[in-house]
Every structure is written in structure tokens, then in C-alpha cells.
Amino acid sequence: MDFATPDYFDWNAGYPSRRLPVFARNLVATSHPLAAQAGLRMLAAGGNAVDAAVAAAAAMTIVEPCSNGLGSDAFCILWDGQRLHGLNASGRAPQAWTPEYFRRRHGADARTPPVRGWDAVTVPGAVSAWVALAERFGRLPLAQLLEPAAEIAERGYAVPVVVGEKWAAAAGVPSLVSQPGFAETFLPRGRAPRVGERFTLPGAARALRAIAATRGQAFYGGEIAGTLVRQAQAQGGAQTLADFAGYAPEWVEPLAMDYGGATLHEIPPNGQGIAALIALGILRHAGLDEHPADSVAAQHLQIEAMKLAFADVYRFVAEPQAMGLTAADLLAPGYLAERAKLIDPRRAQDHGAGNPVKGGTIYLTAADESGMMVSFIQSNYMGFGSGVVVPEWGLSLQNRGHGFSLDAASANLVAPGKRPFHTIIPGFVTAGGRPLMSFGVMGANMQPQGHLQTYLRMVEWNQNPQAACDAPRWRFNAGLEINVEAAMDARLVQGLAALGHRIEVIRDSYQDFGAGQFIWRLGEPAVEGYAAASDPRRDGQAAGF
Predict the structure, then answer these.
(1) Which helix (H) or strand (E) holds 297?
(2) Largest Cα–Cα separation, the chain
(3) How far from each other are the two terminal CA atoms of the chain, in whole angstroms?
(4) Among all residues, which ones are annotated catalytic?
(5) What is the pTM of this model?
(6) Average pLDDT for runs of 10 along the chain of length 545
């Protein structure tokens, strides 16, 4: 099957949306137009897709601070023109972090590190990802890549609708707004900025230029790190200069699962991308191809496969060295065939644990006419992360440390220098060993669910990227509970309910159903180019030339 031809898709298939695919030879798709424009500036200046992705990622820390910042973590999968590369830039625990440290500080009955404050902050990895990607694959100087973001931070921007709504919600969370530096930086008028109001972040402009001038050293050992550590120690945190100086991202080999003539790729643990691969592998044995895309049977099978995948992921996935088994064990064909036998096509079942936590994440993708394609994601985890902000550098910090466990029996037990279980995952698709699509969605445990649903719509049912992006989705939470988007056909909702799924219809789809971006290769990039889609659930934009 030749996926990389324009006539593979039904371009007329679609769902209620005013968006259409964008066709170009050089593309950037993000959840904010200013970030897309920052990436296009790099492509127009002779840069490649990596340059565009780094510029867009830096801009996103300014224009969507509720979801990410300079203190985020990040992951990336990229096709360099010859092969795939994976980058894990998730943060590591400070050396002082042990179960005893948290029980001493937060009580003997504490089960996890806290949600907010310094004791939720691991060493942030996003800046290291920008530097590593630019140095290994980029064409343009780092200073040029970060300058659009610095300019936006200085001049300011009008807060968009979706970001404004999330910002306002965060301003009502006492545990967040009480954190050091938060109100000073993100509530400049004593409240969240209103939609359309101008917001500036001058400290971040200084930080971006310092990072560029030192190739990241300012953040991991220089003046930014020094300020951050001094504030941490003054406010009871355990972070040290040695924790920052010892940090480096890790290049990894992406995992893979074949389905329908194409291959889905995900970053290996400590992230949850393997959940999408497990579910896809289970569905290879479930007869999914016998059913139409929006049938009750097709959606039920996907939901049940996802439940089985999460049951394993929440039990086993952690840092690879701590798991007690390997990713290959979880993806073994025989094992997945046995798991598929647990699905009952006539009723919903509780296959194990769920995780209804909502997240704050941005995803972006870029592709250029040389054939380079980049799938990139970065996040502060929960909205505004830990809430801790270093005002003079405009630096907000993630709360990924909350993802650790204090249970001695857990593979995800906190330990010095360890990385926690991570939710953010970039996706990539190949066919016949050639690149086909860079894509991703946002929103905590919705991410592998969104990968599964959109991949199948394109590969199994020939829906074009914008149609797959627009189609109403479901989200498994726990037990028999699922959420569905309000736009889902009532007959489908009723059919799923009749099988025993406990359904809540959700009308606010910002985080619940995984807004995302997609770039699909149509042929030779310099000739046929790509088709890109952006999600109507977000203020996103796909743009190119």
C-alpha cells in the first residue's frame, strides 16, 4: 500500500470543523500562530525542520505559559533524512530525594511527592533538548532560533481565548498562586490576564538570550542555575548546582509496532508512549478491520485494548533499569495475542487501573523540503507545573516529581537522579522504512489514547489528517468510566453505553480529548510536499510555504 500519495486519502471525509488541511513543502504546526510563525522564520532563513521546531518550542514557552515554560521537560522523535532518532529530555530527581526525605517533610503517610512547590521540581530538561537538537541537526545559530521568542516576551502578545481560559482557572487555585514568584509573574494586575490583554515576560527574554549566548550553560551551570538554586535553598528546596550541572538528555532508539502496513513509533520508558503500542498490538488480534470507523464495535474494541494497555503501563513502566522487565516483554506478539483474548466484544470490562489526571502540555511538529521531520513535545505537567517561578528570569518550573511513588514496591519509587513516570509523548509513523507522519496530541493520559485513535483513522480507515484530527474522541479514565466529546454521534454513545461503558459527555474539549498537530508526507518533499492538520480544540495553526 502506498500511503505517501495524495489519492490514498478521502479528502472529502470529515467532521464538523471549519479547518482544512494545509499543503506545503515546508511546514510548522503548533497550538499558537505566533509559534508557527517563529518556526517559519527559520525555514525562510535557510534553516531546517529542527531549527523551526526549536524556534517554535521556545516561542511556546512565552505564548502558552499555563502549559509549558523554560522549566519544562521535553521529548522528540525526528527523521533526519535517513533514519529515526529519539531524544528523552525528562528531568531527574535531585540527589537529596529519597522516600525518607519526603516522609520527613510531608508526613509518614505521604504516597507521592507533593503536587506544588520545590519538592515537585525535578531538573528541567527542555532547554537541554533545544541545545542538543540544534547542535546535532540544526543549521542556524542557537541565538537566531531563540530570538523570536525573546522578541515576543519583550514586546508582549494578546492572550488568546483558550490560553486565557486556562490561565483564569489556574488563578483560582490557592496552592498554585501561593507559590514563590507566581503571582508576581503571572498575575500582573492581581489577576490572570483577560482574553485580548497584552502580557509581557521580560525576564524570559533575558533568559533566552543568556541560554543562546552560552549554548545552554547559563541554565545548567551559570547565572540562571545559580539564581534558581539560591531561591530553592532559601525556600526549602533540595536542588543544588551539582544536580543541574550533572544533567544531560539521552538519545534513545524509538520503539515500534506494525499495524495495517505502517509502523507507529514511540519513545521508550520512562514515558507512556508504549501504551499506544500495546493497544495497537492487541488490536492486531481483535478483528478491528471488520468494522467501520465510527461503529460501536470499532470504538469498543479500541477502548478495551486501551484499558488493557494502561493496566500494564501503570504497573510496570518506570525508568528502564527499575522496571524488572523490558519494553520488549510488554510488546511480545504472543503476550499481546493473549491479552487480546480478554476483550469481550459484547460488554465493557474493568481491566485495571486508570489515571484521570489532567495535564498542561504543548505539542508541535515541523517538516522541510529536504525530508527532515520533527515530532516535539514539552510540558510543565499540570497547569503551570509546580507553581514555583524565578521572576528575574521569567522561569516557571514543572512538577514532574509528583509522578514518583513513595511505595517501596513500586518500580516508580523515588530515588536520587532517577526519572519519574512521564506522560508526554511525541509520535511518528513510517511505512516501508520511510517517514510518513510526525504527530502528537496533548493532555496527560489522553496522549496514547489520542495516538491510537488518530493513527487508526488514517491508516485503517483512510481518513485524511484533518478529518482524523477533527473526529470526536473518547477518553478512558478508570474502571468502566469513559468521557466522550459532545460532538460524538448520539447513536454511537448509546451503543457504547449499552455495552456497559459508563459515559460522561464533555463539552469542554481543551484538555480532555487531546488537541494535536499532524504532518503527513505526500511523496517527495521537494515535489509533492506534505499535508498538515491542526486541531480545532486549540488555538493552533499549521502554516507553510
Answers:
(1) helix 296-316
(2) 63
(3) 28
(4) 361
(5) 0.95
(6) 81 75 95 96 98 98 96 98 97 98 95 97 98 98 98 97 91 92 95 96 98 98 96 96 97 97 97 97 96 97 97 94 93 94 95 49 95 97 94 96 96 97 96 96 92 97 93 93 94 97 84 86 95 84 90
